[in-house]
Amino acid sequence: MVLQLHDRRQVLVIKAVVLRASDAQIVEELNWWSAAHLEYACRIAKSQGNEDKECADLTAIAEPLLKALTARCAAEAEGVQKESTAFQDGPPSAAASLEPWAKRGQAVLGPDSSVLVYGPGRQVRRSLRKTGATVVPWRRFASGPAGVATRSWPPTGVFDACALRYPNSSDAFEFAMNAIASSLRPGAPLWVYGDVREGVLGATRTLKGLFDLRLPIQEVGDVRVLTARRTKKDPQAPLEAWLRKEKINLGDGPRSWVSLPGLFAGGLIDVMTQYLLDTLAQVVGDAAEKKPPLWKGIQGCRVLDFACGTGVLAAGVLRLLEPEAKLWMLDADSAALE
């Protein structure tokens, strides 16, 4: 559905925007966000042009502009993907080049050492294997096409060392640090690597107590590599000790809710999810007045909640559509699906 404009000033603004954006040089300067707004303006212009003589000339302009905007968005998406890949590969590549698990070419680890490696980083795993160590991966988050198994808590066992890719939040790091501490013997080394732009230097505060930070902090561009040693302090473990019990309201009163650190919106309802649920409630209310209701004709109404988090949106949808709806929930974070 495309908005129809009835205010003459709005029509003139849309017309001016579309005409200005039809300049090829302008299109080349757009980011994906601006292109999306202009796409909507083009669709309004096309729709308006069929009914408004003053906008009739926009119909011919809007179609090629839409194609140009689509091409621009595709190019922008490709660029973002390349930047993201380079950003994600930077810390493990830097850590592997520095080899903090070796001093002057001599391995810090024994040949039979077992090293836990948190997060992605084939470069780190490869470098550690060169020392003769056995590498045990732990991935909380799924990434890439490899299909590596994910888990919320480290594999069972006691490890001689750990290499940790700084995760996407301080909450997730604190959770991972305690989980790792529960799997390391006292005195075991921990190497944390990440980009300063994602907050890796905040790890120096979080490490205190469970680990002793060893200076200096190594640097490669914006990447920092921290070395620490496990103390004897008891960590917060097991996984169940991290469950957060909260209250949320999906429109039918407070209900108990459980989440884990590092989940989207703290595992609760963010403002845009709330807006979507409110909008769905309005749509469902309007549809219920029809005979039959909007979804009654659908045999086995099925809903996929992509990037479900703790399932706030899924629970809200189920409340609105039950008993007809069946839900499938999908997330890259294994903790979301606990």
SSE topology sketch:
Blueprint: H1 8-21, H2 24-28, H3 32-49, H4 58-98, E1 102-103, E2 106-107, E3 114-118, H5 122-130, E4 134-138, E5 161-165, H6 170-181, E6 189-195, H7 203-206, E7 211-220, E8 223-230, E9 244-249, E10 254-259, H8 271-288, E11 302-306, H9 312-321, E12 326-330
Parallel strand pairs: 3-4, 3-5, 5-6, 11-12
Antiparallel strand pairs: 1-2, 6-8, 7-8, 9-10
Helix pairs in contact: 1-3, 1-4, 3-4, 4-5, 8-9
Characteristic terms for this protein:
single chain, 338 residues, alpha/beta, Rossmann fold, 3 domains, 6-stranded mixed beta sheet, two-stranded antiparallel ribbon, 9 helices, 12 strands, SAM-dependent_MTases_sf, Methyltransferase small domain-containing protein, methyltransferase activity
Describe this protein's structure:
By secondary structure, this protein is α/β, with parallel strands linked by helices. It folds into 3 domains: 8-82, no CATH class; 99-239, Rossmann fold; 243-337, Rossmann fold. It is 39% helix and 20% strand. The protein has 9 helices and 12 strands. The chain has helices spanning 8-21, 24-28, 32-49, 58-98, 122-130, 170-181, 203-206, 271-288, 312-321; strands at 102-103, 106-107, 114-118, 134-138, 161-165, 189-195, 211-220, 223-230, 244-249, 254-259, 302-306, 326-330. The chain has a 6-stranded mixed sheet with strand order 4-3-5-6-8-7, sandwiched between helices. A two-stranded antiparallel sheet has the order 1-2. The longest helix has 41 residues, at 58-98. The two termini are 38 Å apart.
